[in-house]
Amino acid sequence: MTGPRCRRKHRPSGRQGQSGARASKHPTPETGWTARRGSVAAGGGTEGQDLPSQFKLRNPAAPGDFVQLPVPIIQQLYHWDCGLACSRMVLRYLGQLDDSEFESALRELRLTKSIWTIDLAYLMRHFGVRHRFCTQTLGVDKGYKNQSFYRKHFDTEETRVNQLFAQAKACKVLVEKCTVSVQDIQAHLAQGHVAIVLVNSGVLHCDLCSSPVKYCCFAPSGHRCFCRTPDYQGHFIVLRGYNRATGCIFYNNPAYADRMCSTSLSNFEEARTSYGTDEDILFVYLDS
Ligand SMILES: [Zn+2]
């Protein structure tokens, strides 16, 4: 235990989760990602040969340059359950989502409205899904105690979460303190695997969603705000691919019901390494 901290998973900001006009830049199911179902550009070489037929390379000339996995989109129902929505997306992608089993798993694991990344790892384990949870802090980081996002239930949660970390090995939940690179993530996706990542939603900006222009209380009326969002807003997303040529990464944001999102690798890196995330990433394997 080195000053653990688990990131609390998220409490997505409501503004992001609501309505939001459908962005015209988002591909429609007809023209975009859905149409590409089954055309995942996998890792190439021998790696691709282990994939189910629907993941075989369509363009063998560019192995691993373009990956877009057919991860279904499931929207979160409340402000606090983005991690559960992400877990459902992943389980459905693996062909293992059964709604009643999922509900009973939540009861069995005693998951409440405070969902941490370690809870998602236990969920994967519960369903026998091969996983690997990488984090910078094996437990709860006490430094988060005064962050507004974490403050509300910090003390009770700290005990519960630290216990989950302590029992992980015995429960066959794979947790490692390690640093993950973008290349590691791309190699993982190229093999048809997916990942749930904890990000600061105030930092993550989708290039496809039309974001409302924000005006600042300190700027003259009508002037755009360039302030950085100061507070951490934990949010889970599901990674599903990338385009090496354009340097972007594709993900499902459970705040939305109708779209796949995309952002630059640099923005993604900033959002997932932002203070408060502990760089939590839960790798999930297709061959589970
Ligand atoms: Zn988007």
TrEMBL record:
InterPro entries with a match to the protein in the record: GUCD1
Biased composition regions of type Basic residues, renumbered to the chain: 1-13
Organism: Camelus ferus
Annotated spans, Disordered: 1-52
Name recorded for this polypeptide: Protein GUCD1 isoform X11
Recorded superkingdom: Eukaryota
Record lineage: Eukaryota, Metazoa, Chordata, Craniata, Vertebrata
